[in-house]
Amino acid sequence: MSVSQTEWEQHRPAVFGAAYRLLGSVADAEDVVQDVWLRAAQADLDDVVDLRAWLVTVSARTSYNLLNSARARRESYVGPWLPEPLLTGPDAAAPVLVDESVSFAMLLVMEELSPPERVALVLHDVFALPFDEIAEVLGTTSAASRKLASRARGRIAKARGRQPPSKAETAEALQAFKAAAQAGDLARLVELLHPEAVYVADGGGRVTAARMPVHGGERVAMLAIRVVLQARPDSIELIELNGEPALAAHRDGALLWVDTVELVDGRIVAIRRVANPEKIGHI
């Protein structure tokens, strides 16, 4: 017997969640979801004990096969590449599995992992799959899969460093950044930004955006003011992306960009702006 519609709707967030964490793209993850649905609808699942684990495994195997081609596409990407933001919270159209592993900062760290490390980490630490099943996805041994996940954890711990701020702290920093940028208050922006702050914009060659990261609190502050003056957004609102507060700028009903930030000691150390229409059209 194949999967029922009720069972599919129950497990679809996990299928999408595995693909999105592995690929960092909403569009690619949705393609994987469709592939998994077609396979599940045609498969004989009578002998499957854990349907969720089976679906997540198929999702991961399909995503794993796409990872190398996805990385190749990023090498020819125009300007900095950032993960495709995922709308979460009350505004999300469909249920989303949200935890620390789906945060923007974590997705960027996972981009530094090898595809096998990423698969082993996500399947074991997020979806609690045993290493023998992960080994089947990767075509390796259970012991090797365990080592891959352990190595990935170590690299992530080293990259992340300190404890991330609360949602309230992030929202407060974003609101202050928004107010200062709209007011053209350079002094206030410099105060909010860490001296070593970096601004990374992903326009994908589709819209005007910095082709290289901008470093230094004062330079980032001046750029933030200049972009607001040039783009003239009607509104900049607080939303939730990837389980964390973010800003969304609109003009004439169209979404111009979304911003996420990282904080260190209460100051903004990184601003990541996604403006590529292909990446934010679903928000």
From TrEMBL:
Keyword tags: Sigma factor, Transcription, Transcription regulation
Origin superkingdom: Bacteria
Keyword Membrane: no
Gene3D superfamilies, A to Z: 1.10.1740.10, 3.10.450.50, Winged helix-like DNA-binding domain superfamily/Winged helix DNA-binding domain
Every RNA polymerase sigma factor 70 region 4 type domain range: 105-155
SUPFAM superfamilies registered for this protein in UniProt: NTF2-like, Sigma2 domain of RNA polymerase sigma factors, Sigma3 and sigma4 domains of RNA polymerase sigma factors
Domain RNA polymerase sigma-70 region as annotated: residue spans: 9-71
Membrane spanning residue stretches: none
Keyword Membrane among UniProt keywords: no
Record-linked Pfam families: Sigma70_r2 (PF04542), Sigma70_r4_2 (PF08281)
InterPro entries, A to Z: ECF_Sigma-70_Domain, NTF2-like_dom_sf, RNA_pol_sigma-70_dom, RNA_pol_sigma70_r2, RNA_pol_sigma70_r4_t2, RNA_pol_sigma_r2, RNA_pol_sigma_r3/r4-like, WH-like_DNA-bd_sf
Chain coiled-coil ranges: none
Family: Belongs to the sigma-70 factor family. ECF subfamily.
Summary of subunit composition and partner proteins: Interacts transiently with the RNA polymerase catalytic core formed by RpoA, RpoB, RpoC and RpoZ (2 alpha, 1 beta, 1 beta' and 1 omega subunit) to form the RNA polymerase holoenzyme that can initiate transcription.
Name the record gives this protein: RNA polymerase sigma-70 factor
Lineage: Bacteria, Bacillati, Actinomycetota, Actinomycetes, Streptosporangiales
